[in-house]
Amino acid sequence: GGYDDAIAMRMAPSGGVDGGFIRREGQRLLDEAGNPFFIVGTNSYYLLEHASESQPWLKRSVVTDTLDAAKKLDLNTIRTWAFYDGEGKFQTAPGVYNESFFDALDFVVAEAGKRGLRLILTLTNFWDAYGGMENYVMWANGANETAGLSVSEFYTSEDCRNMYRDNFLAIKNRFNAYTNLTYAEDPTILAWELANEPRNPGDFTGQVLQEWIREMSAFVKKEAPKQLVTSGSEGFFGPSTLQYMYLNGNGTFDHSSYTGQMCTGVDFLTNHDDTTAIDLPSFHLYPDHHAEELCGRGAPQSDCALQWTEVQTRTRMELASSV
Q1: Which residues, in sequence order, are CB contacts of 132 under 8 Å at separation 6+?
Q2: Which of 28, 297, 305, 322 is the most buried (most CB within 10 A)?
Q3: 91 near 85, Cβ under 8 Å?
Q4: Cα 35–111–60 angle (5° rounding)?
Q5: Under DSSP, is residue 130 helix (H, G, I), strand (E, B) or coil?
Q6: Sign of torsion, CA 135 140 146 151?
Q7: What is the pLDDT of residue 156?
Q8: Sign of CA dihedral 248, 126, 100, 174
Q9: Which residues neighbour 33 within 8 Å (Cβ) at sequence distance 6 or greater?
Q10: Structure-model confidence comparison of residues 19 and 77, the more confident one
């Protein structure tokens, strides 16, 4: 029965996804046999939360149902959170973890590997959902609220940067009892994503975020050399590509005076250049938000939003092929 199967799975761990690690050679991804690998994936950020079953409405069956649905769609990669900061969550204090949440993340990794799915694991969040950078800044300042604090400190504070590095080490060294592998040894983990949508509002030079991406991408790559690294950036155009700043969405470009706000500290080209250890450039498209001023109301349904999305993608592909 199901109970026996569950015991058997524990006794005979899956050992991660078949096919070994995906590696990057130049601009191509290759599997262990040297065949081209193309990411076909989706974003399912909520898997850790559901796997924790920390509330009555959170169910591990949501995890397995989501992974099964992805498999039926012939997807090969899932992006999901590997963080949840705060009291009673995954990381309850700097370097202090809730074992039931860590077991939940173990479960997500193991279940993905069993289905031949690979994961992009996101390490923190610019936005306040699920904790993220604001929690690190509060921890560094001994505060329990963000009043008077700036999220920019996350990138510059030595305390915050040490906490971030230590958190990554705790995850990558974690021994997963479902797979008999540490996270760093598990080819199920395609890539580590430095943060979800990192920004540094008000930094017109983009240098603060750039230095952080350089530092942390190199750190993650050194500590987990068999796995890929991505930024998690929304990929706004910045000072290095002023000619494309008109393509940026709301909140990053003043369309009335036609002046760029320097992408809230983001610069797609430099954030992924060869001074970083980034393997996979990243950009996020939200036609219903970012295209609104360019396309007018009702953008998601409009031809304009589709054209905007195509231009966004094509421009970045051309930039990527030139570096």
Answers
A1: 83, 85, 124, 125, 126, 195, 196
A2: 305
A3: yes
A4: 150
A5: coil
A6: negative
A7: 97
A8: positive
A9: 19
A10: 77
Report in angstroms the alpha-carbon separations of 103 from 29, 48, 66, 179, 210: 30, 9, 18, 12, 34
Q: Is residue 287 within a helix (H) or strand (E), and if so which, with residue range?
A: helix 287-290
Q: Are residues 116 and 73 in contact, defined by beta-carbon separation less than 8 angstroms?
A: no
Question: Taking a C-beta distance cutoff of 8 angstroms, is the pair 236, 263 a contact?
Answer: yes
pLDDT score of 26: 92
Pairing of β 118-122 and β 77-81? parallel
The C-alpha atoms of residue 288 and residue 5 are separated, in whole angstroms, by 45
Q: Measured between alpha carbons, how far is 75 from 312 in angstroms, rounded to an integer?
A: 23
Q: How many CA atoms lie within 13 A of 38 on its CB side?
A: 3
CB 76 within 8 A of CB 112: no
Residue of 113, 116, 121 lying closest to 181 (CA atoms): 113
User: Rounded to whole angstroms, how far apart are CA atoms 221 and 23?
Assistant: 12
Q: pTM of the prediction? A: 0.91
Residue type, 84: Y
Quick one: pLDDT at residue 37? 97
**Residue 301 confidence (pLDDT) above 50:** yes
DSSP-derived secondary structure letter, 16 = S
CA 218 – CA 275 distance, rounded (Å): 9
